[in-house]
Amino acid sequence: SPPIRQGQHVDPAKWRKRKAPGKDVVFLLDGSDSTRSGFPAMRDFVQRVVETLSVDDNKDRVSVVQYSRDPAVQFYLNTYTTKAEILDTVRGLRHKGGRPLNTGAALQYLGDNVFTASAGSRRPEGVPQVLILLSGGRSFDSVDAPASALKQLGVLIFAIGTRSADNIVFLLDGSDSTRYGFPAMREFVERVVEKLNVGQNKDRVSVVQYSRDAEVNFYLNTYTTREDVLDSVRGLKHRGGRPLNTGAALQYVRDNVFTNSSGSRRLQGVPQMLILLNGGRSFDNVDTPASALKQQGVVVIGIGTRGSDKSELQKISYDPSYALSVTEFTDLPSVQEQLSSRKAPGKDVVFLLDGSDSTRSGFPAMRDFVQRVVETLSVDDNKDRVSVVQYSRDPAVQFYLNTYTTKAEILDTVRGLRHKGGRPLNTGAALQYLGDNVFTASAGSRRPEGVPQVLILLSGGRSFDSVDAPASALKQLGVLIFAIGTRSADSRQLQEISNDPIAQSLKRCLFFLSSCLFSVDTAKKDIVFLLDGSDSTRYGFPAMREFVERVVEKLNVGQNKDRVSVVQYSRDAEVNFYLNTYTTREDVLDSVRGLKHRGGRPLNTGAALQYVRDNVFTNSSGSRRLQGVPQMLILLNGGRSFDNVDTPASALKQQGVVVIGIGTRGSDKSELQKISYDPSYALSVTEFTDLPSVQEQLSSVMMERKAPGKDVVFLLDGSDSTRSGFPAMRDFVQRVVETLSVDDNKDRVSVVQYSRDPAVQFYLNTYTTKAEILDTVRGLRHKGGRPLNTGAALQYLGDNVFTASAGSRRPEGVPQVLILLSGGRSFDSVDAPASALKQLGVLIFAIGTRSADSRQLQEISNDPSYALSVSEFTDLPSVQQQLQSSVEAVVIDASPESPTVTVDTAKKDIVFLLDGSDSTRYGFPAMREFVERVVEKLNVGQNKDRVSVVQYSRDAEVNFYLNTYTTREDVLDSVRGLKHRGGRPLNTGAALQYVRDNVFTNSSGSRRLQGVPQMLILLNGGRSFDNVDTPASALKQQGVVVIGIGTRGSDKSELQKISYDPSYALSVTEFTDLPSVQEQLSSVMSTVPVRAPSVTPIVPGKKVTDFYLPKRKAPGKDVVFLLDGSDSTRSGFPAMRDFVQRVVETLSVDDNKDRVSVVQYSRDPAVQFYLNTYTTKAEILDTVRGLRHKGGRPLNTGAALQYLGDNVFTASAGSRRPEGVPQVLILLSGGRSFDSVDAPASALKQLGVLIFAIGTRSADSRQLQEISNDPSYALSVSEFTDLPSVQQQLQSSVEAVVIDASPESPTVTGMLTSTASCCSERLPDLCGETQCGTKQRPCLCGPVQQRCRGQFLSEHVHHKRGCFGFGQRAETQRRQTPSTPGQPSNTSGTTSLQTPPGVDACKVFHRC
């Protein structure tokens, strides 16, 4: 068995590679106090691994044990027999807590109690035994013997640990009196170092000797490996000298060793420790330097002999208990265990927040910043204390350092902070106030005890009063001050306030939203016209149409020039044509001239804005936003919107879309100003016939340029081999920086040097001026070191530099550029980390000398042409122009929908989707021959090309899957035998959805997740009867390249929508003409820009917990909260808000599984945000915390339900109902509805929405039961403050009924007997079809997930024929089961399944 190693990489994909007999997997989870914040991530990791196991067929078994001081079994290997039960239990795991961490005892316990036959272990049968240990700290007891015992039992142990780091300085008494004890001191240091995890980003060690004065043997950054440190320690020579000046030595290490330049990472928050080995009383005074070290946060442990002064050692030590004693230095081993148990210090942290009038809009971001910092502190064990003070003219304490003792209390209070307001801003007075009233013992400050005092100032402007004297007074008290300011603050004033100019690396604005900057090509634009097509604009529509014509006539329309789209809207939006539909001005004008007024009401401008953001300003619809092309929306509006426009308008602006709103006298002027990119972009006319009067004004707005920008990172080879070439590299960086626009915050720059490991010279947000960057670059020193690990450096950049916290603006769409200068071949692998950076959207240019490996540089670069070569670094100027041109010309596609991954172009998965409807009967032989000819040119094989054929009309049917045949001959034989299917109508949308869910899947042979190109060739002979938009878009998002080939009966624009690109829509007159497009098809197939799925690669050396393991996705759900915001719920509203937060915390939002919307209502509803407004849990929680009670009366629940059906559970509002994603509504009501709820509730249920209603005692319980899908889904509480009591019940109910829509393991949705009564009783509620039981077609039932056991429900099969979708197994059983007395025959064609004796299948079905 491999040894237990902290941080060892574990690839759960290994589990899947093994066939039977399976394995017994035990997870041992560190549940000690120190892992509280990380426990949810541990829980998620266990879930992801369990997802990959084969539990349901009893191959694999799972157990989970948590431990701290002692272990606690969560469940044994034989407790659960299904994956669903295990996952449910894992999701509900609660953190154990406790200390100390006894890993040894836990391992012993597993051997005695878990890896045993009685606990379900199959070790005696030879089944592999696997232990996965997740640990967050060092074990307090010994692990050697119990780990060895487990290995002897044959248990394979994987240990995954978190990474911690310390800076440890040994201060050794080297005076004459310790000459004979010095070897023992040296050995002691050796033994301590042997237990450390030494490394650049791990533990660092320094040794200093002293007598009269101090001398450094080596600094914290001298050595980066444990071996080097030990070699140096073993070579230490006794220094000698007298007298013994311990005070001077303490002062020396504070000023010269615990510093940034000497390798101390104090400012990065790494714990600082000083271990003093002392043999006598100090000749000088130790009080002041000892106090200074404590104020700096250094934990001093003093170890003395009988010759030392005990009281002096206690003064020096961080705490008197940290003063340890031995008789002689030879007794040092006796205190080693005692030494390792010492804890890091705490700190008192005060936040001083600018609450003046000028920070009103930025205050929520400040509040969030404070929350994020508090999350990292250790409050609960009384290490850290926190206070918050707001100020403007004068200060106001929100809470003192001793007000709260738990992190939860602090976070609750911070979330509820309200902006203070007021002016002027008196920062000086506030600082003075802190010294007098907050950094005091009575207010909870532990300054007299030596606990570090920290002040974090967030300021949004220049102080009106003087800050010098009060800031100086705080520093004299030992307060460490960090000042963070926005661009409106006075940077010089902030530097005066702060202790150290280094702190000003934080001076960038951390909390005010900056506008997105994009590279702009003013030679082209993407322009979308959004036209009010509601009933009220009927007579003005011709004038709107003419206005659009006149604007288009002035544009330079073309594929690589201007692009145009037109969308009309009223209740919902409809695209007339997309940005990539037409490529000439004439075609656009022809389409505009043919526009017909749409009509409809009400006018939902908010929903329309959201729709164009999600469906038109996208890559697949022709938007070139990610390439830096300006995005423009021109809204022509004739009335006030019925829904809210704030959120969608804001979302468009954040996406960088310039919105110009043009309204008539019927429009709401303030609404138009909100919608427009800038209030000045809101234009006005009396009637639409006056539009020509604003055309000139519009043109001038359209011509305004937006500033470009990019984030540029230089990665410089600083290894030993580049020493002579380093000055040339430095000059090259300077010359490139000279060409950038840094000063106006367009471009940002970072420089990183690397050899064995990387070292950041400065981050993207360290400097804001070109002068600062150039000064730093000129002063760069060569790093040195070997070997050259380029792969590790690339990985480091992805994890630490191309991140928001380091200044990267990647989330805002700003292009990310990496320029690598390399002088040699990398010692480690570059493939995975380079691929990971490309997936992040980073554009990589690599420049190497003749000593570099050109092939390796090409692998690293996005394109081989981006790998440039020079003989020596002194030749770099020769490629500078080439580099700059490439950077400017290249298209940076940072879209998460199309990440760049390694694609194996030597093989493809090709699916033919054939129109088999009645109308293609005579053309089918030609289709079949066409497929034959294409297949004949393919290289079919298990690891080569794979082929599938699907026919469709009303619904789709697979002729054979991608993994059915492995030779070309077998495929051709099957193709030649294809029979025309027939049927109508033609549902192309449903067929596209079917192939996405059932054919392009792992179980059907698709290798999409392995990066193999996925291709769909559609042969179509008519217009689809259903909608193709959503399924076509879903295929594109999945990376499938669709080529649509149609006849004259097909709808050309429909084919263009379906195809991956409009140019991939090919056309023939009849199917007999298909040979004419075969060459064209081959060309497309060979040049198509195949997109692979966004699967995070497993990178060597990186923790498994940092990745989502490749696996099939869970179903997800769309969850809408409908909150009673009427007058009667004012006092209960905070409890409602908290309840929503708690439920959202349990959802999987960040991976786009779950979506959330919140709507408040009283007389009428108000959407707080839609299902597609936010894509991260953090954004949702932020918004929920800020919800304000709506108020109003009466309570119209019926109208609110109706509104949800019309405006929220819709595709334009983000609902994925058309894609089969479960729709969940959670209603919180505090009273009886004034209007009728029956019809709107029934309408929602017909849409497939699952409704849960929770009411207080003031609500009408019967009404809530009517609203809910089932009476058991109507829950009751006395008051809203009692909502936590039903949360678990609600979540269990939601989980029990949500459909698992995964195509890879379809869920059997119920159990039918052959009796008509059972079908007619139960199915109408679920299917809405009373005759389902007598039909041979599949019935598509609502959200019922089977949780029953028994042979008759154990088969997980695809829907085929027979009532309720029981598959081939069911159909076979129906045919083979004879009619017996007491059982109805099967003559009616219904499906009968054998049930166990005494089981009423009808009841079983109802329960399921």
UniProtKB/TrEMBL annotation:
<dbReference type="GO" id="GO:0007155">
    <property type="term" value="P:cell adhesion"/>
</dbReference>
<feature type="domain" description="VWFA">
    <location>
        <begin position="1118"/>
        <end position="1290"/>
    </location>
</feature>
<keyword id="KW-0176">Collagen</keyword>
<dbReference type="InterPro" id="IPR052229">
    <property type="entry name" value="Collagen-VI/PIF"/>
</dbReference>
<feature type="domain" description="VWFA">
    <location>
        <begin position="909"/>
        <end position="1081"/>
    </location>
</feature>
<dbReference type="Pfam" id="PF13519">
    <property type="entry name" value="VWA_2"/>
</dbReference>
<feature type="region of interest" description="Disordered">
    <location>
        <begin position="1368"/>
        <end position="1398"/>
    </location>
</feature>
<protein>
    <submittedName>
        <fullName>Collagen, type VI, alpha 3</fullName>
    </submittedName>
</protein>
<dbReference type="InterPro" id="IPR002035">
    <property type="entry name" value="VWF_A"/>
</dbReference>
<keyword id="KW-0272">Extracellular matrix</keyword>
<dbReference type="Pfam" id="PF00092">
    <property type="entry name" value="VWA"/>
</dbReference>
<feature type="domain" description="VWFA">
    <location>
        <begin position="167"/>
        <end position="339"/>
    </location>
</feature>
<keyword id="KW-0677">Repeat</keyword>
<dbReference type="GO" id="GO:0030020">
    <property type="term" value="F:extracellular matrix structural constituent conferring tensile strength"/>
</dbReference>
<feature type="domain" description="VWFA">
    <location>
        <begin position="711"/>
        <end position="883"/>
    </location>
</feature>
<keyword id="KW-0732">Signal</keyword>
<feature type="domain" description="VWFA">
    <location>
        <begin position="348"/>
        <end position="527"/>
    </location>
</feature>
<keyword id="KW-0964">Secreted</keyword>
<feature type="domain" description="VWFA">
    <location>
        <begin position="526"/>
        <end position="698"/>
    </location>
</feature>
<feature type="domain" description="VWFA">
    <location>
        <begin position="24"/>
        <end position="161"/>
    </location>
</feature>
<feature type="compositionally biased region" description="Polar residues">
    <location>
        <begin position="1375"/>
        <end position="1395"/>
    </location>
</feature>
<dbReference type="InterPro" id="IPR036465">
    <property type="entry name" value="vWFA_dom_sf"/>
</dbReference>
<keyword id="KW-0130">Cell adhesion</keyword>
<dbReference type="GO" id="GO:0005581">
    <property type="term" value="C:collagen trimer"/>
</dbReference>
